[in-house]
């Protein structure tokens, strides 16, 4: 190893999947002691690059050097042996095992010492006894990061690690990246958030359609220069309010935006003055005294009530683990409540099967789209029309694939989904493009009485976030009720008419996002203000299963 050699040097890297060239003559240099960000649109080739470095994909062409030494991994074990640790977009934990059992699977010498070191150096303390399947995605992600750090890597590759993290955890992770760099090692950080890149990164490389579009020290790459490199159009063309969502600025909703009072605010509902097809008023989605108990007897949802009106966009903020996952599982039909009732446009759907809910007009975008939102082994077209394939059946039996693929083509183009076409397997799409497919499918339900979406823009590039927000607004303008669960407070502030805060299974608030103190108010509710049992110090529900815990100052800052 040479003292001055870059930590990682890649040149001429090319990788194709059939006719799809995912990486095309890519050059990238990561200096030792730095955090190097890899940016780019959905499908630009970022994950493919990570997979090549991590040894799970063998490139068609290209040369890699690690700290000056030729490096040509053929399998993940080669990367591990070379001191590279990876955190991929998809979880590698065994859900039926506990966190401790998962860590033991790594077969590392001195595990207790390593765990203690990760706790001391990075403040990450996994709850070793917690079963992985019981943990929310954000906590699982932190366990994945702990797993990577236990290997004491000299190069850490993180593929969009912050998508499922709250603000406090994101700050902690970025600080972890800086610490690794300060120790002389290096980090490759894939992110869609320019704010994160600016906070943690030293340099960046931007990929577009598999090629390097530009890059350099981040100090010389302000957003006005980065955005055009990423999306091929000026930063000024981005949707208003988006800047905050991607972490560029701390935006405020514009006066009047999202100010319409919903049923829960006590104001009288609108009666349909702005458009013939626009339906208004309460009762599109109604939860009454819904109770869901966890296996340990605690309440994930504690006699929760909520009314989302036709045409209203309601946001649910809150630290992960306060009942949001159970609420989404309940709406999707994967979980039946112990008490209470769920109604869609007056119809009792408390125990309706998922297919019945779809037919009744309830669109659901689950938090873990990869596991619950799609079928990776099926083609994109079938995923786009899941639950509605009947419209392409001939004589009630045969699937008219031509017609289905034709219809799918139109959706793929309309939603800017990059794929190998309607017949490509869903698993071959990039993470962001999979998310776009799930969103496109649920938004296309007819009727669409209510869309319930968890983290709808997670993993989407900055251009796609704006497009999804406009689609949600369009659906709402037509009378669809929208419920958005998001860890992105900026997203909720620009999108919603009303925001409630999940805290220990209750929905606190509402907060009017147009009020100047909305962020502060939401921050207070996230810590339990207004909770019937008084505020708590923990406030994190299950999110406390792996430190760091949220602290009051972190909650509203995102
Ligand atoms: N196993 C595969 N088979 C076929 N095509 C693939 C495969 N893996 C990736 N691709 C294609 O390669 C391109 C790059 O995908 P990749 O996952 O690297 O993008 P990305 O930049 O990480 O996107 P995102 O931001 O959405 O995660 C995409 O068009 C994707 O569909």
Automatic annotation (TrEMBL):
Keywords: ATP-binding, Nucleotide-binding, Sugar transport, Transport. The keyword ATP-binding applies. It holds the Pfam family ABC_tran. Residues 549-558 have a biased composition (Pro residues). GO terms for molecular function: ATP binding. It comes from the Bacteria. Residues 245-285, 528-558 are annotated as: Disordered. CDD domains: ABC_Carb_Monos_I, ABC_Carb_Monos_II. Residues 8-234, 285-529 form the ABC transporter domain. This is Simple sugar transport system ATP-binding protein. The lineage of its organism: Bacteria, Bacillati, Actinomycetota, Actinomycetes, Kitasatosporales.
């Amino acid at each position: 190893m040479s003292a001055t050699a870059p930590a990682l040097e890649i040149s001429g890297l090319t990788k194709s999947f059939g006719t799809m060239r995912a990486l095309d003559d890519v050059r990238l240099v990561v200096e030792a002691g730095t955090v190097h960000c890899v940016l780019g649109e959905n499908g630009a080739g970022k994950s493919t690059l990570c997979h090549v470095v991590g040894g799970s994909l063998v490139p068609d062409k290209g040369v890699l050097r690690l700290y000056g030494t030729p490096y040509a991994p053929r399998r993940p074990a080669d990367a591990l042996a070379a001191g590279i640790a990876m955190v991929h977009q998809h979880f590698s934990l065994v859900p039926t095992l506990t966190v401790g059992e998962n860590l033991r699977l790594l077969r590392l010498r001195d595990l207790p010492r390593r765990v203690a070191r990760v706790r001391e150096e990075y403040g990450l303390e996994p709850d070793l006894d917690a079963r992985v399947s019981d943990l929310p995605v954000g906590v699982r992600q932190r366990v994945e990061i702990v797993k990577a750090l236990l290997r004491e890597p000299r190069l850490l590759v993180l593929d969009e690690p912050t998508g499922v993290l709250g603000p406090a955890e994101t700050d902690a992770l970025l600080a972890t990246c800086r610490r690794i760099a300060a120790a002389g090692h290096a980090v490759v950080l894939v992110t869609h958030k320019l704010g994160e890149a600016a906070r943690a990164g030293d340099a960046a490389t931007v990929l577009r359609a598999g090629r390097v579009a530009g890059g350099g020290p981040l100090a010389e790459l302000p957003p006005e220069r980065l955005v055009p490199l990423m999306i091929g159009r000026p930063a000024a063309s981005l949707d208003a309010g988006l800047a905050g969502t991607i972490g560029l600025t701390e935006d405020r909703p514009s006066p009047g935006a999202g100010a319409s009072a919903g049923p829960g605010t006590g104001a009288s509902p609108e009666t349909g003055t702005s458009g013939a097809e626009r339906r208004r008023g309460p009762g599109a989605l109604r939860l009454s005294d819904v109770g869901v108990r966890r296996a340990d007897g605690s309440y994930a949802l504690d006699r929760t009530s909520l009314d989302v009106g036709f045409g209203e966009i309601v946001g649910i903020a809150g630290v992960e683990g306060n009942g949001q996952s159970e609420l989404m599982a309940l709406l999707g039909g994967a979980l039946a409540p112990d008490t209470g009732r769920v109604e869609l446009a007056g119809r009792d759907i408390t125990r309706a099967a998922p297919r019945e809910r779809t037919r009744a007009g309830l669109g659901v975008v689950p938090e873990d789209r990869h596991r619950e939102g799609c079928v990776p082994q099926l083609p994109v077209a079938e995923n786009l029309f899941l639950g509605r394939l009947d419209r392409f059946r001939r004589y009630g039996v045969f699937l008219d694939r031509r017609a289905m693929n034709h219809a799918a083509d139109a959706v793929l183009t309309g939603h800017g989904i990059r794929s190998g076409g309607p017949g490509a397997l869903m698993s071959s799409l990039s993470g962001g493009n999979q998310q776009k497919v799930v969103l496109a499918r649920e938004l296309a339900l007819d009727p669409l009485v209510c869309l319930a979406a968890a983290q709808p823009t997670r993993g989407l590039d900055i251009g796609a976030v704006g497009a999804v927000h406009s689609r949600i607004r369009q659906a709402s303008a037509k009378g669809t009720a929208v419920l958005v669960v998001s860890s992105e407070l900026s997203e909720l502030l620009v999108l919603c008419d009303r925001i409630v805060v999940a805290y220990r299974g209750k929905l606190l608030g509402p907060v009017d996002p147009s009020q100047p103190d909305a962020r502060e108010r939401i921050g207070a509710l996230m810590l339990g203000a207004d909770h019937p049992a008084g505020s708590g110090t923990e406030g994190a529900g299950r999110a406390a299963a792996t430190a760091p815990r949220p602290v009051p100052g972190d909650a509203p800052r995102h």
